[in-house]
User: Which sequence fits this backbone?
């Protein structure tokens, strides 16, 4: 059964997949802290969730900044109560061949996609350990499981997220805390997808709509497909699952 009356903190929830996750979890009965660098978008979503009858709080935060992440968790707790569920969704993408990939782009990808997950986990885990209860879901990517030209730096960050998920899951399992990852395939309708199309053109990548032809289920993913899997992993129905990196790819990637 979905948990009712609990608090979820979702990073990068002002737009895209994170927004769908926040909405899905609020429908499952969670109060939601929305943490994002986009403070305006976060506030708009918090208002919408409140109109639907749940508590919600918007927090302006850069997850790649350690103090910012610690402050975010404190603000969320003050506004809504102890955090039961952390969804590390905030992420960015930069494409290009590794051979001349700019160092600043490499560092920024790791700062947001990897440091961000690490800092947010550190921010919520001490409280979860004390309460002997908690749940973390990290949004990785199918790109974290395969190497592909132009996605090398991004893939390395997502492989790191999968590895961190596995190690942390085993570390905190004795404290009653579960940690899993979701690996989306090609998700349509988010600002990141628009960004991939824009950057991809430069490197001769086919548009995502064309790539849909090689997806066994015959379509791109929706943000809701990913949100439904997060809601499942967060629920007690997944009580025996930890350390997993679940593909949501329409059959595009199987391992
Ligand atoms: N779109 C896809 O096809 C796809 C596929 C696989 C995995 N993913 C992963 O799913 C997650 C969400 O993707 P999306 O498509 O919704 O992305 P998006 O760019 O559409 O949205 C990301 C959100 O994160 C926020 N954000 C960015 N940097 C931040 C930071 N430093 N601190 C806090 N918030 C920050 C943005 O403001 C935005 O609201 C990402 O981790 C991404 O890597 C996306």
Assistant:
């Amino acid at each position: 059964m979905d948990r009712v009356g609990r608090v979820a903190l979702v990073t990068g929830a002002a737009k895209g997949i994170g927004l769908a996750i926040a909405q899905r979890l609020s429908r499952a009965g969670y109060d939601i802290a929305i943490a994002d660098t986009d403070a305006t978008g976060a506030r708009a979503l918090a208002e919408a969730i409140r109109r639907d009858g749940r508590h919600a709080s918007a927090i302006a935060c850069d997850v790649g900044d350690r103090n910012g992440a610690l402050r975010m968790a404190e603000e969320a707790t003050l506004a809504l109560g102890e955090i039961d569920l952390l969804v590390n969704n905030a992420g960015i993408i930069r494409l290009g061949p590794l051979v001349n990939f700019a160092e600043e782009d490499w560092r920024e990808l790791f700062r947001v996609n990897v440091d961000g997950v690490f800092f947010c986990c550190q921010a919520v885990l001490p409280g979860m350990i004390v309460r002997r209860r908690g749940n973390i879901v990290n949004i990785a990517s199918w790109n974290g499981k395969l190497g592909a030209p132009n996605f090398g730096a991004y893939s390395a960050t997502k492989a790191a997220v999968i590895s961190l998920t596995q190690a942390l899951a085993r570390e905190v399992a004795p404290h009653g805390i579960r940690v899993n990852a979701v690996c989306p395939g090609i998700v349509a309708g988010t600002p990141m997808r628009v960004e991939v199309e824009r950057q991809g053109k430069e490197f001769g990548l086919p548009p995502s709509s064309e790539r849909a032809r090689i997806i066994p289920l015959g379509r791109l993913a929706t943000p809701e497909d990913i949100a439904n899997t997060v809601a499942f992993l967060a629920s007690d129905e997944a009580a025996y699952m930890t350390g997993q990196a679940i593909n949501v790819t329409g059959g595009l990637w199987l391992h």
